[in-house]
Amino acid sequence: MQRVGVFVCWCGSNIAGTVDVQAVSEALKNEPGVVFSTNYQYMCSQAGQDIIKDAIAEHKLTGIVVCSCSPRMHEATFRKTAAAAGLNPYMVEIANIREQCSWVHKDMLTGTEKAIILGKAAVAKVNLNAPLTPGESPVTKRALVIGGGIAGIQTALDIADAGFPVDIVEKKPTIGGKMAQLDKTFPTLDCAACILTPKMVDVAQNENIRIFSYSEVTEVKGFVGNFDVTIKKHARFVKEDICTGCGACTEKCPMKKVPNEFNLGMDNRSAIYIPFAQAVPKVATIDPNYCNMLKKGKCGLCAKVCAAGAIDYTQKDEYISEKYGAIVVATGFNPISMDKFDEFAYNQSKDVITSLEFERLTNAAGPTAGKLVRPSDGKHPHTIVFVQCVGSRCSACAEKGKEYCSKICCMYTAKHAMLTRDKYPDTEVYVFYIDVRTPGKNFDEFYRRAVEEYGVNYIKGMVGKVTPEGDKLKVQASDLIANKQLHIDADLVVLAAAIEPDKSARPLATMLTASMDTNDFFTEAHPKLRPVESPTAGVFLSGACQGPKDIPETVSQAGAAASKVIGLLAKDKLTGNPCVAHSNELMCNGCSSCERVCPYGAISYEDKEFRMPDRTTKIRRVAVVNPAVCQGCGACTVACPSGAMDLKGFASAQIIAEVDAICK
Amino acid sequence: MQKITREQLIDKAVSLLENGTVEAVLGWGKGEFDYDVTPAVFKTADELKAGFVWNDFCGANFSKYLVAKTGKIEGKILVFLKPCDTYSFNQLLTEHRFDREKVYAVGIPCEGMADIAKVKAVCGEGISAINCDGEKIAVTTLYDDEPVMVDAKDVLAERCVNCKSKKHVAYDELLGEEGEVVDSARFDEVAKIEAMTPDERFAFWQNELSRCIRCNACRDACPACTCEKCVFDNPNSGVENKAPANSFEEKMFHIIRAFHVAGRCTDCGECSRVCPQNIPLHLLNRKFIKDINEFYGEYQAGAEVGSRAPLVDYTTGDIEPGEVFDRRDKNA
Q: Using a CB-CB distance cutoff of 8 angstroms, which residues of chain B are in contact with residue A621?
């Protein structure tokens, strides 16, 4: 029989506000095995932990139940407390009476009743607990960064600087991501390329970093410290190690009418192309959708002009398998499609553009060499209307846009407005906004400058309709402060489109078994305390894949993710989770059901000799679990038709005891 | 009358025994009555000639017996398999329950087996002899001078009326001609039960299962029930050896068993055949098979060795749990 101690936490008023903690500790005193029960204001504090340690010694406790917050919050804390008092850490059970009880109940009576029931279930379970000892597994000292934007670049550089090899997988032909497309960056207005491209070069030159560009991750197996990843390198029909990036092929290519995605289709590129001058790797890529040689077998000009002989029309997609200890997701974002926003006439007029297109229009390396002109007629726009929150904070129109705030639009719109007024003082600039949100270092000052020094017309209100008429765009809007309708004849309308996670994120999350929110942003392990870790061990988050972020925030998160990876890779061995499956070989049929459902390949079979009741021996095939590989997911325990498979720490008998205690 | 004769089967068995291919023969042996046929092991030609039976009452599916028997002999054992038995044979192979190398399987055609309960419904009790050799089944009772002639079609077991396959999916040698998978109406009865209101359905099963005497015959005959240690025999399970103490216990037993074999049951119908209380247990299993077919697409357990049953397989195309609930609400 166990000697169980029960410790009920008030969590200040978090629990005690809705749960009568005194009543809970009193009620649980009468449960089987309980020899001690108390409550305290903050069980996780030093004083609270001391209460637990003292009680373990004084009452010779063999198991403890802490009625407190979610085990995800403090289970590890209380296990350490128990271990410090000489108790096996796996003799600790947590009854979650905060997230699953006090926070969801308003009434003291029902809250208390439920807390008692949850406590009883935990006592019933701890009565069947057995001491467990964790095993160890090795760590592959190599990290994978998925995505080569500023988030991925910074993470990779920081990990590589600590001395660990890193691979970057980027689906585009070059790293650089969205930042490479930007003109200036707020709030300091330094040019994006000037601060990004040196980092891209650092990546290329760092001997610890390998870049898999034009590649994607197709399969992820394994677990923290031991991921097996398959990377698909798309055929670019150019030998990467031979191409010098001279660009002769791109000049000679006769197929020049390919929409240039780097400039968002505002100009054309050739079928063989280098996305931009500072691309890394600076290697040409043939677009198989447009290349005449690949499509019709006629042309071959690029191969003729390539002095290095790098063109290879027969190149095939290549699959690379590599082992990693940690994976960082840095898949970034995209502006949402404007197709559903008919009211802004995006699809009707070339002069209605998105903010990212505006970036390219004002970028010295962009389609107009930095000259701000109307895409329709190349004339200088005299009146520009910026519309904020297009598809952001869109709670009433969830099917069109996003409910969340895209966070970066207020600042970049202020930047666009300011730069326009700076370069072209004769231009009238209007910004329509719901709110201007500028929480960040020097952000509000920046916005104030746009209004006060540069005379940008900020108008609180939304644009209702944009109608192309002649060469003008008729903008109908409301000014909420003046309480009147506005009609503006604009030359250019710029839409601050909401941003959304990259489409590759969802299938990637499935591969990584990492969780996502309803908007397809990756979920962090804890929103406040573990913001760069995913709930899946060994998978980390960097940049906008986790939520909208500006560059300073992305870079700091990238560094934080890198430090977590370094912390992981610095270890030679990882302490495993002792809550793994094990098979009772006397009951095992050897039917293979468990092996088929195991996502980690942790189960194998052995022929073992058994003594039969009639003193004969029989050789039977039975399942054997490799505890280093098992992650304790429990899939096998439910697949096993004989009930031979069980999970340590979560045995079927323990779960049933909990259910019985709840249903009693 | 079966197309293949007892003599043909004995000849085949004797020749395989004599040329050393097999060491023993798993076949049907005489029981207390002519209709009471029991599985038996034969090791010599004499034993076969004396005791081997082949008639319309040889329903027993031998697949499961291979689990125990193959472990007890050095060489191979000959097993006669009717088409439906071959599905269980494959399913057990999928689950690695016996060594295929130790078995010589002979597929035999089957014209459907008779249900003694249906025979008794026609002829009454007191059956002293049955002869299945003629066109019709001749049933002699203590109370009639002349044998009552029964048309085999009228007394076919339910599982044979709704035969799902005349095709053998596994064998080393086939006697007679190969048949085809049959388009059966086996789910009609399940659909009728589904159409009941929850109260009617509860009453139906309450009535059927209340006759259960917990003899465990269904479990012992079931080719899917081959656990080393059955949960109902395991003192650690908390549900072992429970007699039907109340009206809930026997329902528990059958529901647990139906869940246990879900996705692995080949619908061989042995459970209902051996039930001394004539409980239509196969309907529980068929409900699972019907649901699996509807939720995951047609799946026949045992149709091929090594196939992954939908319930222990995961694909991204799997039905969402919500759809199951919607359907339940619709049926409620």
A: 96
Q: pTM of the entire structure? A: 0.70
| Cβ contacts of A312 within 8 Å, gap of 6 or more | A237, A238, A239
Contact yes or no for A589 and B95 at CB 8 A: yes
Asked if the Cβ–Cβ distance from A641 to B97 is below 8 Å, we say: no
B264 — contact with chain A (CB < 8 Å)? yes
Our CA-based measurement puts residue B7 at a distance from the nearest CA of chain A, in whole angstroms, of: 36
Which of B227, B230, B256 is the best mutation test for A, with the most CBs of A within 10 A?
B227
Give the integer Cα–Cα distance in Å for A531 and A514. 14
Residue B61 is assigned to a structural domain of this protein? yes
Q: Give the count of domains, chain B.
A: 2
| Neighboring chain B residues of A590 at a CB cutoff of 8 Å | 95-97
**Beta-bridge mates of residue A232:** A216, A319
- Are B228 and A588 in contact (CB < 8 Å)? yes
DSSP A24-89: HHHHHTTSTTEEEEEEES-TTSHHHHHHHHHHHHHTT-SEEEEEES-HHHHHHHHHHHHHHTTS-G
Range of the domain at B237: 188-331
Interface residue A590 vs chain B (CB under 8 A): yes
Whether residue A652 lies within 8 A of chain B, CB to CB, comes out as no
Q: Which CATH number fits domain A4-126: 3.40.50, 1.20.58, 3.30.1950, 1.10.3470?
A: 3.40.50
Question: Could you list the pLDDT tens digit for every one of the 332 residues in chain B?
Answer: 788 999 999 999 999 999 999 999 999 999 889 899 999 999 999 999 999 999 999 999 999 999 988 877 889 999 999 999 999 999 999 999 999 999 999 999 999 999 999 999 988 889 999 998 888 999 999 988 889 999 999 999 999 999 999 999 999 999 988 889 988 899 999 999 999 999 999 999 999 998 988 889 999 999 999 988 888 888 877 777 666 667 777 788 899 899 999 999 999 999 999 999 999 999 999 999 999 998 898 999 999 998 888 888 877 778 877 777 777 666 55
Tell me whether 0.90 is exceeded by the ipTM. Answer: no
Does the beta carbon of B96 lie under 8 angstroms from any beta carbon of chain A? yes
Of A162, A292, A242, give the one whose Cα is nearest residue A569.
A162
Find the closest chain B residue to A619 by CA distance. Answer: B71
Q: Of B231, B233, B289, which Cα lies nearest the Cα of B264? A: B289
Shared-domain flag, residues B282 and B214: yes
A314 φ, ψ (degrees, to nearest 5): -95, 5
User: Do the Cβ atoms of A639 and B312 come within 8 Å?
Assistant: yes
